[in-house]
Amino acid sequence: MTTRGKTYVSLLAVVALTAGGFAAKGWLADEGSDNSGPDGSGASTAGDAVPVSTETAMRGPISHLLGSTANLRARREVAVAAQAAGIVTSVKAEEGDFVKAGQVLCAIDDRDLQIDLELAKQRLAQTKIQLESAVIRADQTRTRLRNKRTELERNEEALREGLLAESEVAVQRHEIDDLEHEIQAVESTVRENRLRQDELESEIRKVELQISQTAITAPFAGRITERTVELGQSIRSAEKLFKLGAFTPLYADVYLPENDSRSVRAGQKAALRLGSAGGESAEGAVERVSPVVDDETGTVKVTVRFTPPNSAFRPGAFVRVEIETHTLDDAILIPKQSVIEEGGQTYVVLVGEDSTAQRTAVELGYQDETAIQVTSGLDAGAIVVTAGQGKLKDGDRTRVVAN
């Protein structure tokens, strides 16, 4: 036998041994073998049952909710501006600080105004002295005038009796005329000094107002949301220095379709949730409903007011708002995850007493975060599949693994 022939015989022997090993270990099945169980009847009954989770339809309260989204806004938010020009000498508030109404946020150099105030007060003091002196002169002149008139009356009587010459009486009449002119002059001086006093008092009030405006104060209690002023900065009148917001309460403005808005009234409860479904929640109420419909969107503005429970709720935050318009006290409720939607129809899978599945069409009503109302299709006490229903067909056996 040739060398090539010997090699071919060796390969056949190896193949034969390998096939025998597979057969011995059961890796190669006979053509007539099957997958029957130990009793030859196929898979066990427990293996045929589909594992599911179930819950019982129950009666309970549920509310009709109108949902929308909004960004929170503060009760009020304003830019605090300077009312006077000058150099900033101090900054007393930072972003995030809570400030009280009237609290000083920053101050401007007021030394020039203080000097103007002192000079105005000195001029006022001098004017008051001049006014007092003029009033005294006026009183003295009136007294002299009264005395002269009394004396003139006696002399005119003496003149009629021939006891006094006409020239003497004439002199007294001229003196009275002079005193009357003097009184007019003094009274004019009194009026001028009083007017000057009023002007100086107004000037003082104006300077005091200007000095008060060098202290930039918070117009209401709130939180500083922005600071744009720096120490030593030269600022102009009306220049914006801070932003101040009142964070309690907060508001959410939602826009509802006209038909939905008809069921909304002031005072109705509302729930607000931050961001996604897992965000923090808060309770509020409808404060007002706009009396007009937006002609471009066909929606109505509804304002919801609430007190933020913590600092996570802040102006600008995105929230989901649900307004409670009506509550049913005795509704048939099932978990929302038990509902199947196919072809525009809604179904649930019921589990009968024999543990078989039955797909049932239902009509739904109100719903909240976890439950949904069934208006027809099943009664309270029915067992509905909440997980695993996608694999079930009518008549399939089920095995409850969790409730």
What's this entry about, in short?
The protein is α+β, with helices and mostly antiparallel strands.
What's the gyration radius in Å?
50 Å
First-last Cα distance: 77 Å
The fraction of residues in strands falls at 35-45%
- Overall, the morphology is elongated
Alpha-beta content class: alpha+beta
Spatial order of the strands forming the largest sheet: 2-9-12-11-10-13
State the helicity in percent bands.
Answer: 25-40%
Low-confidence stretches: 1-45
User: What is the count of helical runs?
Assistant: 5
Number of distinct beta strands: 20
Q: pLDDT average, as an integer? A: 85
Tell me the series of helices and strands, N- to C-terminal: HHEEEEEHHEEEEHEEEEEEEEEEE
> Main sheet?
6 strands, antiparallel, barrel
Structural description of this entry:
This protein is 32% helix and 37% strand. A six-stranded antiparallel β-barrel has the order 2-9-12-11-10-13. With 403 residues, it is of the alpha+beta class. Among the domains are: 52 residues, Beta Barrel (OB fold (Dihydrolipoamide Acetyltransferase, E2P)), CATH 2.40.50.100; 102 residues.
